[in-house]
Specification:
The protein has eight helices and no strands. With 114 residues, it is mainly α. It has one domain: Ribonuclease iii, N-terminal Endonuclease Domain, Chain A (Orthogonal Bundle). 12% of the residues are buried.
Length: 114
Amino acid sequence: MIFDIDGVESKIGYSFKDKMLLRQCFTHASYANEHGVSDNELLEFFGDSVIEFVITEYLFKNAKGDEGKLTQRRSEIVSKAPLLKSVLALGLNEYVLLGRGLEKNANLDEKVVF
């Protein structure tokens, strides 16, 4: 499968210097195992931390409430459902590289690995 780097960059409005890093972001472990390339799991781990930090900073500066309420709100924002909604709204799920077995049998929740 050919990865459409230009299509992804167009959808997100950002041009990457390292195009292979962008491709890796969309490479599921099942595809990586079949093709001998790196998957997105470490990048996902890092990205989750960045998203959580950005939301934490935003809530700290803009939201009212105690620590417990802010923690709950952050958890709601960075959970799978709102992130999946954003990915689907941008159509980024169409670019995820999946292994043959997963591609054939996956539903949307399994396909989106961000």
